[in-house]
Amino acid sequence: MRLVARKAAEFDEVHGIAFLDEHLSCAYLARMKHEDISASRRRPVNVSLDTGIVDAARKAGINLSRVTEAALRVAVKKAEEQRWREENRESIARFNAWYAENGDPLAHLPAL
């Protein structure tokens, strides 16, 4: 299996995105990879958390701010990915239909 196909399959499996071929997954990966949320200044905010988990986290020496920030990054990224899939659903369906009908236009090229 080509490297691109393996990476696309791994991504699809982890994120639950089913593309007909690795090229569209690759395009998606390339676009989303560069949209990281950059770290910037910190802002104090109020959040309500279960007291039991807060106590356990403190006992374990876990930095609540950092863990919360990391979880928010994951949640925001997932929401952005879902939005991208929704916005591009028709294009993905058209591409998949074209690909199913015409096959891989690069199939004649040797794998890297």
TrEMBL record:
UniProt cross-references to InterPro entries, sorted A to Z: Post-segregation_anti-tox_CcdA
Lineage top rank: taxon: Bacteria
Record's keyword terms, sorted: Toxin-antitoxin system
Name of the protein: Post-segregation antitoxin CcdA
Protein source organism: Sphingomonas metalli
